[in-house]
Amino acid sequence: MSGGPEKLKGRVLRTVGGVYEVEVGGATLECALRGRLKRVRGIGRVAVGDEVEIERLADGSCVITELLPRRARLSRRSADGRREQIIAANVDRLAAVFSVARPAPVFELLDRFLVLAESSEIAAFIVVNKIDLAAADEVGGRFALYDEIGYAVVYTSAKARCGLDELGDRLADHITLFVGPSGAGKSSLLNVLQPGLELRVGAISEAIERGRHTTVAAALHRLDLGGYVVDTPGLGKVQFWEVGTHELAWCFPEFRPYLGRCKFQDCSHTHEPGCAVVAGLEAGELSSRRYASYVKFLGESSGRGS
């Protein structure tokens, strides 16, 4: 009988200080990276959500030996602007969580998250939390645009325990990335959906109406209703990785019926004559708020020379 190491397959739940927590058959094992994987940078580095091969050595310690092929990845540009930074791997849905108030929703940030999902070809939906803080018609009116575009909008309140069944139905049997600004209530919602999770929940600063970061690193949590959620630190800024002009326009679904109808094939949809997108905007068929997000994102992309 061979006395070699035991080989196992698992899913990375979180990373803390160079230690990788890997779920294997319902158990969680703490693993280190094999030497050659430690030297890998960028998209080849092991991330939350990755499926990996590990070896359990004779002394009981575990080592990740292989990174298995990814089905999908969500990533952003690193702070120095030079590298692709993976937020999570193998997710199949993105839930953009925003509160009605405290803090008030920043729609440009919501648009960033939706573009992030579209560019990765991952389905997205919107979670509007803290609906107990505003009148129903006000809440619905502020997010009606996204429903018209085609994004599902789920209205919830972790405090009042409403909308949770619908949210749970959308999470069941999927691997969903929870993103949103600090203070929107991501951790509060997950604590209600998954009793015993006990994620830290922070207070809102009265001075600036901004939540304090309570989630310090992305972590994958299994749900009793089936599937997983990736809880992320409050993301206040997302710089896209390699989303060019044509790809960016496609990432706004309401633009798609107009694309290909412009006078110039390489139209940036900003200043060119005969632009179908601009014509749709001037006719009131497209949202000026969403178009402003497109122009800003395009400017950021052009500023990097992409």
Describe this structure in words.
The protein is an alpha/beta fold and 306 residues long. The protein folds into three domains: 6-67, Nucleic acid-binding proteins (OB fold (Dihydrolipoamide Acetyltransferase, E2P), Beta Barrel), CATH 2.40.50.140; 73-231, Rossmann fold (3-Layer(aba) Sandwich); 245-303, Ribonucleotide Reductase Protein R1, domain 1, CATH 1.10.40. It has eight helices and 13 strands. The strands form three sheets. It has a six-stranded mixed β-sheet, with helices on both faces. A five-stranded mixed β-barrel has the order 1-2-3-5-4. A two-stranded antiparallel sheet has the order 6-7. Strand 8 (93-99), helix 2 and strand 9 form a beta-alpha-beta unit. The longest helix is centred in the last third of the chain and has 16 residues, at 288-303. The chain is globular. Residues 202-216 have low confidence and may be disordered.
